[in-house]
């Protein structure tokens, strides 16, 4: 037989990958538009457009000929370390993606587009039943997906692994078990103290002024408006179409300034990561974020470790008072600091404090695990949700909108995503702890509204590496330790000891 | 030899076409975003994304196997008349497109994206030299394109034919020659009369109020906001991603209400056509507009024959006075009517009156013809422009921004597009004339702000047919006549006789 093998050069590999990225990012533009500006009647055709692009990208990416060529290219000794990493990560990705048939990808994409509309309709009607049929279909598809991808121990592992490489049910069970006791103990101590007042942020704040403040805030905290923009959407999100075009969205509650403020800083954290990825690696693994846990570590580091610090409040309170002089009359930075750190079991995950937040995630994690096992009918989700919030947070969920309809994730087909929020929070504490060691006077810089050195440190330690290091590798390089909940527990204990005047010895270790 | 021919069924044909449409419309979303919301630094990667999608769509569309299959499908006797029309138009399109190599399509697309940025930069700098190098490249590519497509008599014919099937240099030379004398004579008569005042529209009109008025206006004139939206851009345009998602843009001059008003109504006219195309034919020729001349006939019919009529002004003046009470104090509908129909040679095509407009188009037509002949160096365009405006309109173009940098078309790679503006204006007069015969009391309806019957007539006569009829076929069906400048001349003579108190016998016929 003649040798008919074609050989793929590295430049050919990059142009192939870049065309694929063009398709993927084009699809991201369609999705961004769908959630920001698209008129209502455009939804149906848009579903088809997104599905077509998804299917094409999948078909090109999983071309069996390319899989072979990638393995040949890996054997090429002239590749440098980064090039080899790009090719080997791509070969892995291709082999994962190739497990999903094209028809399945199209069906999933179309179901997701319809689900997003159904979820929006269900929220409007405040009725889970409107969303249930499509959610049931999505869950069935997700089980199928897990089977296609293959799994050991638990089908949910196949989905977890898509967002956080190597993440498993047993690892998360252990992490949440370790968090539960000290968190519950700390919550109990706090509940026994006098509650802090959040009245300063719960006033009337005109929408337009909040918007202006959010834009100013983004600029001052390092968002590059030449390479990004902010818009409004029902559920805030970050997306990007290159490192030079990063879009975030926010939502505004006219009776709560903290809602928009921390949602904006949260998305800013995501956006700074995307803006910091190397544009020279556009379309290649080293030009992409390494995991959702690390992505979330960036959003939560900026939202909480920076944004909810006394330093940040000291620096930004004058600006807040500039935009809202009447609402801030007689208050100071500490009033604001206490208000935005109030600990209180509540219904909405994205508005939860840093402690109860993990219970919101745990509930979703356990629910998804159960759904993937098939032991819970879709229609029982509201009752499950109700019971779980009662059990973990001691509160009675009043309706679906405040309960199981609050998150967009399922309607996006994202199952296994929620746990990355807790991981992100834990990584954030660990990274920020390392930053405080690496950057002398960091808190002083933050108090002065100077975020450049912290951003630069994150750029050098995390952003510029793209997918070169896994979450665990990054974590070890930065902190000398694997993921360890002690960094987080240490951080929250110190914070709430001050805010709630807890006695040192009284805090469980 | 075994028969290895595959046969294409009509349903397979439609799903192939719909996937192609998904790709094309996805690309239109990318372009819409580029001109409305995209941050500056996103431009470079966006060019690549648009180029990739263009190239893919081209590659799929010109698959030689498909061309063969389409011809086989045409021989299928079970197709109904509409199905046969779809397939035969597609076969024609494929054979035209297949003449352009994939590399060429990609190069064109990339050059266009860069040209758009260069044009924007050149406008900012008010300096044609900034745009000249890319424009030169575009012209070379357009000559190549004409050669690929093939042409007889004149290379420009190949480009004209892309926008208006069957349109040729000899046909346009004749049309413009026929228009020139009576138009010039009418202009001379008007110039001899006392000028009308446009002071009512040339005042300070706050941008935000103008925006609100434009949105109100669109709603009242029949724009379906469930299936479309309006945004702002440098150069107003209409695009669509299905008949259920039609986007228009406008621009606002804070010192001129007529600029935004008539730009908005113009784009509304385009949008009503797109919203009226049959969604059931999505992605197929019968779901598309028939020609740019007909598209423009819709925008100009609404802008001029409706929007600049005394009936429209009577109906809308109260609303204008509602939004701008101070500016309208002491004025009435006739003041407004006269102001927006002032005839005056001017620099900007999109702001020109209905008479001088054709000279703006003639100048561009002759310039493009010359450029395609290769007899004018790119750098001489500003001087050519200057001389032409002096010759035809008697005015001295002061700078590039007011001169040869005013139109976006070349930067979009659109050469041969301008003539469709004059054709559109002529078709509009002919169609509107037919509508006045078909709809008793039409002017009364317009005076009452009732546009439903006119819109419905346009829907039935033009919109729902998609590409089933050519421009000429439509024109004959509607007016019983081929394109004939007399309808237009009759319309403008009547209009300006009233506005400029011209004596009947003094108007040249």
Question: Brief description of this entry?
Answer:
Chain A has 509 residues and is mostly helical. Helix content of chain A is 62%, strand content 3%. In chain A, 45% of the residues are buried.
Spatial arrangement of strands, main beta sheet of chain A: 1-3-2
Q: What CATH architecture label of the largest domain in chain A applies? A: Orthogonal Bundle
Number of domains of chain A: 2
Oligomer description? homodimer
Count of extended strands of chain A:
3
**How would the global form of chain A be characterised?**
globular
Helix content of chain A: 55-70%
Low-confidence stretches of chain A: none
Return the structural class of chain A.
mainly alpha
CATH class of the largest domain in chain A: Mainly Alpha
Largest sheet of chain A: 3 strands, mixed
Report the end-to-end length of chain A measured between terminal Cα atoms.
70 Å
**CATH third-tier fold name of the largest domain in chain A:** Neurolysin, domain 3
Count of helices of chain A? Answer: 21
Mean pLDDT of chain A: 95
Specify which chain pair forms the largest interface. Answer: A-B, 38 and 38 residues
Radius of gyration of chain A: 23 Å
Please provide the ordered H/E string of secondary-structure elements of chain A: HHHHHHHHHEEEHHHHHHHHHHHH
Proportion of β residues of chain A? under 5%
Task: Explain this structure.
The structure is a homodimer of 509-residue chains. By secondary structure, the first copy, chain A, is mainly alpha-helical. Chain A has two domains: 10-99, no CATH class; 169-506, Neurolysin, domain 3, CATH 1.10.1370.30. Helices cover 62% and strands 3% of the residues of chain A. The first copy, chain A, is built from 21 helices and three strands. The first copy, chain A, has helices spanning 10-36, 43-61, 64-74, 81-97, 102-125, 128-149, 155-163, 169-191, 207-220, 257-276, 292-306, 310-323, 325-328, 333-339, 357-373, 381-393, 419-438, 442-447, 452-461, 471-479, 485-499; strands at residues 228-232, 238-242, 245-250. The first copy, chain A, has a three-stranded mixed beta sheet with strand order 1-3-2, sandwiched between helices. The radius of gyration of chain A is 23 Å and the shape is globular. Chain A binds chain B through residues 18-19, 22-23, 25-27, 29-30, 33, 37-42, 44-46, 48-49, 51-53, 56, 224-229, 231, 241-242, 244-245, 279, 282, and chain B through 18-19, 22-23, 25-27, 29-30, 33, 37-42, 44-46, 48-49, 51-53, 56, 224-229, 231, 241-242, 244-245, 279, 282.
